[in-house]
Amino acid sequence: MPRTFCRNLFIAVLLGGLFGSSLYAESSKSATGSSEESRSSVVSEGYSQEAETVATNAENLKKLAVEYAATNTVAFPGMAMISELESAAKSYSRWHSTCVKSQAAASTACLEKTSPELQTTLNKVNTLAAGLSTMASTNDPCSTVAKVMAAAQAGLTAYTAACSAARATCETSCGSVKNNLDRVKKIISEENDQLVSCNVTIPTNHPSYDQAIKICATDYPKRVSIYISAMKSVTDVDSDIKDAKSIYKKDSACTYEYTNMIASAGAGIMSLANSLQQANKCDDDTSGTSTVDCSLAANATLQKCICENAPRTAGCANSYDKVESSATQVSTGKVDNTSDTNPVVDLDTTGTMGLTQAETSASTGSSGAAPPTGGGGAGLGGGSG
User: Fold this and answer.
1) Is pLDDT above 90 for 100?
2) CA dist., res. 219 & res. 211, Å (int)
3) What pLDDT does 322 receive?
4) Contact 46, 98 (CB under 8 A)
5) CA distances from 247 to 45, 155, 232 (A)
6) Are 318 and 327 in contact (CB under 8 A)?
7) What's the distance, Cα to Cα, between the start and end of the chain in Å?
8) Are 309 and 294 in contact, with CB atoms under 8 Å apart?
């Protein structure tokens, strides 16, 4: 049954899909447990232009505080926090487009429908699989299976390398942008009191005292609120995991989805390696080149070893059932000329060979051998005189 096994193995691989669901089965589950939220619905576009406005507003906020502080009438206890906000916002904006581009590249490298390595491999596999309908008549089906497995394994290996490199770049850049985005969100939501904090530094009898009061009580807080509101409108969108363009979505894809695809591809490589080994063994069995060591206990139940140790076992070439079959032929005086081996010459029950044939030859006048005389069973040689 080696050829049947090879065909079944070949069909199973094709029906199961070399890359299909295996690359996506695990990718639906991220380490955060948000299955659908980390799926490949992420898109290549991003909010890079909007991120620039976050940096601009943070920079303007700091300029405002510096400008008011220069009057020497007010001071801002939260200036350090304002500087930290500006730094985080600028880093978030500076690397935003890099994240967007690297995620798009990783998507191309890791998704089956866009991966050059997988598409090239699938084309090769489809070419090799084109003769599946005629596999039954193919002289070397196992060799074809082995070629398919080898091509698939090489393709998955190339895919894993390309996807791994692209994913690593994506994770690094998007992870950095996400960290700075989180810093901006934390500051504008949790440190708002420090951002708007303003103290009058001049005495009440100073000519600019009323102006200083107005700066701290009204002007500065109002303008800070405008800046923070503008930044929050962008950071809220870019941190929405359900938004296909968001940094959170891109970071999730690079960190979890593409990683799981690589892991699944690795499992696929191991599976294909095992199938390739089976296909090669199938090829050896079919071509008769395989060697079985019957001295090993593990091989004791193999048909070859059973027949080697007990050649008369049913199903073996020299089994008793075949001996009994030959005996039956002897008892009926019939010669089996349908066998691929030498014809079996049988004896009749009287112990003579070809008597009827000799008598018939004599009656027709043909020259035939005289019937043997004497008792005893005649073998493959002549009778005894």
Assistant:
1) yes
2) 10
3) 52
4) no
5) 10, 31, 15
6) no
7) 51
8) yes
DSSP 3-state of 344: strand
What's the distance, CA 218 to chain centroid?
A: 61
Give the Å distances, CA to CA, from 338 to 137, 256, 318: 25, 67, 18
Main-chain phi, psi angles of 343, to 5 degrees? -60, 145
**Cα 323 from Cα 327, distance rounded (Å):** 6
Q: Is 79:67 a contact under the CB 8 Å cutoff?
A: no
Cβ burial of 60 (10 Å; 0-12, 13-18, 19+) is middle
Burial, 147: exposed, middle or buried (Cβ in 10 Å; 0-12, 13-18, 19+)? middle
Cα distances (angstroms) measured from residue 55 to each of 146, 184, 194, 335: 57, 10, 19, 101
- Rounded Cα gap, residues 31 and 255, in angstroms: 9
> What is residue 310's three-state secondary structure?
coil
Which one-letter amino acid corresponds to residue 318?
N
Confidence of residue 380 (pLDDT cuts 50, 70, 90): very low
Q: Which is it for strands 74-75 and 199-200: parallel, antiparallel or unpaired?
A: antiparallel
pTM: 0.60
- The stretch 19-44 carries a mean pLDDT of 50
Report long-range pairs for 346-350 (Cβ below 8 Å, ≥24 apart). 347/377, 347/378
What does each C-alpha distance from 13 to 160, 176, 216, 271 come to in angstroms?
19, 41, 73, 10
Q: What is the number of alpha carbons within 13 Å of residue 104 lying toward its C-beta?
A: 11
